[in-house]
Amino acid sequence: MSARPDAPSQPELDRERRHLATSRVALSRMRARVAGLTAHAGDPVSTEHLRAALWHRMRALEDDPEVPLFFGRLDTTGDAEQPAERLYVGRRHVTDEHGDPLVLDWRARVCRAFYRANPRAPMGVRLRRRFGFQHGRLTAYEDEPLHRTDAAPGSSAILVDEIERPRLGPMRDIVATIQPDQDEIVRASLASTVCVQGAPGTGKTAVGLHRAAYLLYAHRDQLSRQGVLVVGPNSSFLRYIGDVLPALGEIDARQTTVEQLCGRVHIRAVDGPAAGRLKGDSRLAEMVRRAVWAQLRVPDEPLVVPRGARRWRVPAHVSEPIVAELRGRGVRYGAGRALLPQRMAHAVLVRMEEAGESPDDRVQDAVARSRPMRAWCDQVWPRVDPVRLVFWLLSRPDLLAEAADGVLDDDERRLLAWPTRPRSPGAARWTLADAVLVDEVADLVERVPSLGHVVLDEAQDLSPMMLRCVGRQCSTGSATVLGDVAQATTPWGVQSWAEALSHLGKPRAHVEELTVGFRVPGEVIDYAARLLPTIAPHLRKPTSVRRSRGELRIEETAVPLDAAVSHVVQALGLLGSIGLIVPDPLALEAAAALTRRGVAHSVLGQPDRVDSVDIETRVDLVPARLVKGLEFDHVVLVEPAAIVDGEADEVTGLRRLYVCLTRAVTSLVVVHE
């Protein structure tokens, strides 16, 4: 390294600060230029569309003085055709008044070298510079020569400092610290679906979000039409990651959960392990398909349509092949229902022509829309309401037995059926698995429109039926699938990525395994990895590249909760966020204990509850079931045995414990009785 972050050249540092100030002024000028534009188009719809585009552009050009505009620099070698250049790499593209770039968006093709270049493959780069910042002020730089193959390899202190920097609040982007193997995933083509098996702390969630940001940049026109969706495990997780894409200038991606995707019913109950596993079984897709098409009736009455002074009659033996032909075309139930009136109207027109009349298309449309035609079609091809169909299926054993014949055995049918029949769908205690069945029926009736790209996180916890639900969102698009089989904590989760990708509808997806951790300290990940031979023996043991091995304490005490709160109070004297992870039944008791000690805290799963006038609390009380995907600088974990015992079986409990143990970024204290 030619310059260390603790001893930079002052003239050079001042010059880089001037470039930063110039870039901020230029960004402000760019935003003012957009703000001065007036939206006028040929019609109100176009004008509104233009206003929305200008608003999005204004949002993308917002400047946060706490966030550096650039974090790196590339000095290229140049040649006879292309002179040497100095390129600054940042979160967005900034140009001067002449249109020349002051900062390049990290997603630009030329910026790949910042993440991938090395002395053996310099990619036309002579020198790579990384910048250190504090509260938006440039404080240091660090140079890495790449044109010399004899250059001594060394780790970047600035890079490690950024990785290990304490965090508060929501998840932040990792755009300054993306590693070469992560960059390969981020820049994978839109046409490909990528599955990332990532150990704790390997940045798989951040990689998935940055891939979404990259694809929105590289395929702006296509994805602005088709849409990008991020699917997370719960609302707490979505709040945690919610600022990442906006920080990268992307506000168009929608974020949701599987529960929100299946929003046709109000979920008020939770399935037991056995029922949840059965309802998530892919065999139920065949069962509900049968139930939908069982609504179809064989025509046993003729169609009679009055037209003028005559009545036109289509016998049942003529209409039956028409219905069978539509059914055999493989169309969705609703599409077949929409086509039937036109096909039957055509049969009426044939009879008119045979009688010597000369009807045209307008006559056919009128016949298709006539009241007798609609009534006849409603009898033969009745409308299907997905909520009511699943309601009757689960509340009437006779209908369930008919649809599940040969699919489920008697015990499974009894387990699937509701013990008592609710008065109405609105009074039913729907579960998430029931809602997924409703979504399956809805897609059989009307096709779910496909988005351009879906990012699915914590995919290992989804059942086959849930994966089918998400897969419908990207049936003609691509996906980024993120997860860790070792962290599967639901009874209905799939056993392998091959199985998961098959249910998702992406069996040819490429699977990448990330095992090098950047956030979890080495001592902590080594301790947690002792569970892997039991919970996921086929996975490689993760490693940590952290300079600091971290701090790990295992403490036995007679009163674990009181001891845990004392450790939280001690951690308040340190930098960074604090997570108190407890077994779910202890959440209320733990909240009361924190309040007694005067510790301001928020309770995950209860977003409106903050026991302080200051919303920006440093302490999060986290029930074990909600901790997945989150990270804290300091973690205090209470009663690991109770966390294990709270799950349906020991392996699932140990996986839950593995998740809880690997949330720490700096220190972990395990308190047990």
Distinctive features:
673 residues; alpha/beta; seven-stranded mixed sheet; six-stranded mixed sheet; disordered N terminus
| Biggest sheet, spatial arrangement of strands | 17-23-22-18-21-19-20
Nearest-integer average pLDDT:
90
List segments where confidence is low: pLDDT < 50 over at least 5 consecutive residues. 1-6, 610-615
Question: Looking at the structure, what is the overall shape?
Answer: globular
Protein structure class: alpha/beta
> Helix count, per DSSP?
28
Q: What's the count of strands?
A: 23
Gyration radius from CA atoms, angstroms: 30 Å
Beta-strand fraction estimate? 15-25%
**Whole-Å distance between the termini?**
50 Å
Q: In which range does the helix fraction lie? A: 40-55%
Q: Largest sheet at a glance?
A: 7 strands, mixed
Fold and architecture overview:
The chain has 673 residues and is an alpha/beta fold. The protein contains 28 helices and 23 strands. The strands form five sheets. The chain has a seven-stranded mixed sheet with strand order 17-23-22-18-21-19-20. A six-stranded mixed sheet has the order 3-4-2-1-5-6, sandwiched between helices. A six-stranded parallel sheet has the order 9-8-12-13-7-14. The two termini are 50 Å apart. Residues 1-6 and 610-615 have low confidence and may be disordered.
